[in-house]
Amino acid sequence: MSGSGEVEFRVGLASCGVANGARPVHEAIEAAVREAGRGAARAVGCGGMCHREPLVEVVDADGRGVVYTHVTPELVPGLVRRHLRPKGLLTRARWLAAGLAERGNGGSALHAAATEETSAAPRIVLENCGRVDPLSLDDALAHGAYEGLRACLERFTPDEVVETISASGLRGRGGAGFPTGRKWSLARAQAAPKYVICNGDEGDPGAFMDRLVLESDPHRVVEGLAIAAWAMGAEEGLFYIRAEYPQAVRRVREAIREAEARGFLGERVLDHDVRLRFEVREGAGAFVCGEETALIASLEGSRGMPRLRPPYPVEKGYRGRPTAINNVETLACVPWIVRHGAEAFAALGTDSSKGTKVFALAGKVRHGGLIEVPMGVSIHTIVEELGGGVPKGRTLKAVQLGGPSGGCLPASLGDTPVDYEALRETGAIMGSGGLVVLDDRDCMVDMARFFLRFTCHESCGKCTFCRIGTQRMLEILDRLCEGEGREEDLANLEELADRVSRTSLCGLGQTAPNPVLTSLRYFREEFEAHVQEKRCPAGRCAALTDYRINDAACIGCTMCAQVCPVNAIAYRPHEPHSIDLDLCTRCNMCFEVCEDGAVEVISGGEVCATSPRMSAAEKAS
Amino acid sequence: MATVRLKIDGREVTVEQGKTVLDAARSLGISIPTLCHIEGLEPVAACFLCCVQVEGARTLSPSCALPAANGMVVTTDSDDIRAARRTALELLLSDHAGECIAPCAARCPAGLDVPGFVYEIAAGQNDQAMKTIFDRLSLPGTLGRVCPRLCEQGCRRCDYDHEGLAIGALHRHATDRNQAADEPALPRAGEASGKRVAIVGAGPAGLTAAFYLLQHGHACTLFDAHPKAGGMLRYGIPEYRLPRAALDAEIDVVDRLGATFRMSTRWGSDFSLTELRRDHDAVFLGIGAQLSSRLRCEGEDLAYSGIEFLRRVAEGESPDLGHSVVVIGGGNTAMDSARTARRLGAEVRVLYRRTRTEMPCLMEEVEGAEEEGVGLEFLVAPVRLARQGNGHALTLVCQRMELGEEDDSGRRRPVPIPDSEFEVRCDTVIAAVGQAVDRSLAEHEGLELTGWGLAVDEKTLATNLPGVFAGGDAVLGADLAVRAVAAGRIAATSIDQHLTGQPVTGPEELAAIALRPVDDEEQAAIFRDIEKAERVPTPTLGMEQRLSSFEEIDQGLGDEQARAEALRCLSCGCAKAGGCGLRRWATVYLADPYRFLGRRRRFARDDTHPEVVYEPGKCIMCDACVRIAAEASEELGLSITGRGFDVSVAVPFDASMSDGLRHAARRCAEACPTGAIALRTGRACDLAGCGGCSAETT
């Protein structure tokens, strides 16, 4: 908001921005603003378009915004000049001259960087992400922080709030989708002392929703946990955040400190007879610690190993006391629901899945990043409209949802809505929000192997099936990808998948076979090709794949020879190239650079992919 | 106290609140297998062997940790549950760097507990050693002399010292010593059951069947066509290998157990199987392989049969062989015939149609024969045998052979070389080219047959006729004495089951897994701290005496030599072989230890603790020791470390086991469901005091 009437330059300084070089951009803007004597440089969190970081959003005095993407420090002076008229006359003259000199070169880059502000979709979780300065409580307050908590204390009873959450239809965003209101009312019925925990142990490879929310809008989550604690009658709350998220840890700690200092937490919350003590605990990064009983064991100082439920943590959890554990995204919805009412939230989504869901969109899409969509939107819409579809020349094959606990959905099921039950029916799961788009060059066996390797490694090692069963499954997939598949492998793989899923104690083991099971369900012929024909239809598995140059198509441009990291392609301009297969490591680089449809990927004697043939105009762009 | 009511396998049960489903099932007498469950300790629910199906649940639940709840409906046994348990066991076994039984014992057809009896010899407990030996072997003195000792080929010393432990010599020694003792340790006859068993054939199979049946209290009558008991041991093995006194002493053991011997009584002429079945409660057929295989060449009737020759010598005859003898064949009978003929004063040549490597007899027999001056010629086969004129002398026409493709036995088939015929002149030809089972009578009496002999169920040795069992050479064709002994024991168990109205299943053989080192590093770990030690040589008879008599060549080990040799034993195998839960349940659930072969734990052995030995390769992550150490307030205790497939139990901070377990070691070893933590007892190398293990304790 630009309540001050000043032009605001918001630079995304969440991990995605920082990793892409947003800090120097932020510094450059600060310098330019200082020089201009007006305008304001703000550090904000992630706006969601991670694939275009560093992002600078400029909000004019009248509140209209424009977003610049892929901003570099060099572009900053021109960018700032476009939106500010410096106070000093001298500076104004100098800027004008620089602007004239620049027109023609740098200007076009700046023009290309500007983009329309996206997303007409309602934002709940990400409402303030990328808008609010995560390190400023004042800025957060200006964006409505703690209004929900205040409303609770001043206008509602705890039972009413629990009822509101129930009525909103909010379900656990960690993946399983347990109704949040039910969990709260179970916890509320338990005797004190009890605990609330924010589960920030986001661990799925490729998922970073919770991280960016914690980094970009920590007060929202703190407020969510505060409302949860108060509604359930808990005085103590814990943030369990993995140590690999140092920025999130730091910002949440800072947010708690500031909130305490200003009376939003502490011995008398907002001058009411309410006590809320929060602290942050860092997890050592074991994936299984996202499982609530393992998380509790970890908090208690033990090795993070799950135990059998029942008893559920809500009856017997941290320190043997009733404990309600909610995921970051779940808690981030809570202040919004309290402020806008259950009906507003329930108005979004499907019969059984309400509100919005944040996804970390990655893989073979043009625009990856964080997206927040209303429940009920189809997978197809997400991929095509929000993700911009798969890059040219490739076709959508499947979408992997829920990471290592989830499964893949073939392109043919693209109409499936984002809905807990609808997704579960396909064998995939909503999961915590990882969404990886796969194209025809992605091998489903290899993909299943990737996720299984992760869970196999992350198993706590307690249950026989999870510890050894996943390893044996992985060995089978390794064999398949290496072209050493055996006749009995698929039957054993299926049997083990079924056993691991039905004979493991916790969610990790029970869901670990999902990527394998769904891949087998929708892409069985691909597994069979690996075993019986030693063929990888996607041309991905190195041991089963050869690369070849089609003489008729090759124009001798040497692009492939230049990128080949092992010099398997001789540098011979204007002659058709050829690949020395003894040297070739099947890295796929030649395939990626060839624009003349000359690189062919061969598996089992069949051409399974040909590099795209581009027109002169396409090449030029 | 509040109670809950639930239904398990269709039966209602009421238990106190807080009890688990496992408790409830056990209160009904329902058996559920467990490995990680330790009575009195907080359950961990790790092994999943105790899994049960709760109605309405998608998953199987670990009953050991599942609180019994009102209205719960539980199934503890179904195809699905059994399959889950079997797969769990197969997975655990696939990651098990251990061996249930020592490689020597695994190779012994009779399953003799080699490290067990050898340890007892080393410890000077000969009576105990005999008990261990008699558990699996009758005739151990005889077998110690004549057995080809597959066990010794399996001995781990072979990979280390080139020569395996002298196992045969050791049980022979123990037996000889026992026989010489004032009060020999001998098995006792069981309380009379009133059942009668007829045993046809008093060879190693029949004698062994009687040996064990008598201990069960069943009366045994042995029928044999020969005048004396012992079968091929007496009539087919020359005295210089097996003195009659040694054999007689062992037959005497069976006699003293109460066997009735009906000698010179022949099946077919003196009795029929039908009569035996009528007069007895069960019959065992251990008739051996008494027929000589034919030479299949012209004039073969002019040749002596090897076993016929040996039998006549054994009965005290001295057949007139003339000056030069040719023995045809490459098996033990050929060697026995050659060396016997040599002792009768003849010049002897052995002709064999393959090469030395393919000879099925013991190499030491070949070496012994050569030492005694027997000539060997390879790749030669007989074509024709004819008498030279009217005299005694014979002409044997032979042809040279070369080795071709492999045949069914895996040996390369000899193929004649064209135009390679040559003549051998001699006075006697002894054909020792194999024996066969006389199948005609068996067939006549309605017994089913195979290509080798009588057809039996492999596990129980039951024939197609109810109450009739068979084993040894009669089933296998000419084979090893130890296999006949093994068969006699199996048949005795089956017959006992048959006589006492139990299901006839044969002896229970526990599932077992072998340790196959994955690489040199692991191999080295197995041999860590082991000192090299050459085999203690056995005194043998001088050559002059050998050729001039039938005195036993192998003089046997003296007491000190035996003890020294026993101390060479590496005590392979698992200290918990008998008490291992993994093995026990793998047996019950028919788990295949090799179904899910893949990467596995590495063999490692931590000898640093004075009371226990820790082998992490055998750990199944049951957490028992970790919980026990914690409960016992061990300062360091044990902890699970690592992640995923590579987890292991270790003392924190890389401290030693002796630091980790200061007072709970014994309890840990007792609770450990496998041999991962085992009390350090019963290892010969401990007796040797090599210091290798204990040196690291400090």
Estimated structural class of chain B: alpha/beta
The fraction of residues assigned to DSSP E strands of chain B is 15-25%
- Span of the ends, CA to CA of chain B: 52 Å
Mean pLDDT figure of chain B = 92
Kindly provide the name of the CATH class of the largest domain in chain B.
Answer: Alpha Beta
3D shape of chain B: globular
Give the helices and strands, then pairings.
The complex is a heterodimer of chains A (about 625) and B (about 700).
Chain A: E1 8-12, H1 15-19, H2 22-36, E2 40-44, E3 56-59, E4 65-68, H3 76-83, H4 89-102, H5 106-113, E5 114-115, H6 137-142, H7 147-155, H8 158-168, H9 180-188, E6 195-200, H10 209-216, H11 218-232, E7 236-242, H12 246-261, E8 277-283, H13 292-299, E9 323-327, H14 328-340, H15 342-346, E10 356-363, E11 369-374, H16 379-386, E12 396-401, E13 407-410, H17 420-426, E14 434-439, H18 444-458, H19 464-481, H20 489-502, H21 507-511, H22 514-533, E15 545-549, H23 559-563, H24 589-593, E16 599-603, E17 606-610, H25 616-620
Chain B: E1 3-8, E2 11-16, H1 21-27, E3 51-54, E4 60-62, E5 73-75, H2 79-94, H3 103-107, H4 114-122, H5 126-136, H6 140-146, H7 150-154, H8 158-161, H9 167-180, E6 196-200, H10 204-215, E7 219-223, H11 232-235, H12 244-256, E8 260-262, H13 273-279, E9 282-285, E10 291-292, E11 304-305, H14 306-314, E12 324-328, H15 332-343, E13 347-352, H16 363-371, E14 375-378, E15 380-387, E16 394-406, E17 412-416, E18 422-426, E19 428-431, E20 435-436, H17 440-444, E21 468-470, H18 473-476, H19 481-499, H20 520-526, H21 543-548, H22 559-566, H23 581-588, E22 612-614, H24 624-631, E23 639-641, E24 648-650, H25 657-660, H26 665-671, E25 677-679, H27 684-688
Parallel strand pairs in B: 1-5, 6-7, 6-9, 7-8, 9-21, 11-19, 12-13, 12-19, 13-14
Antiparallel strand pairs in B: 1-2, 3-4, 3-5, 10-20, 15-16, 16-17, 16-18, 22-25, 23-24
Helix pairs in contact in B: 4-5, 4-9, 4-22, 5-9, 6-9, 9-22, 10-19, 14-15, 15-16, 24-26
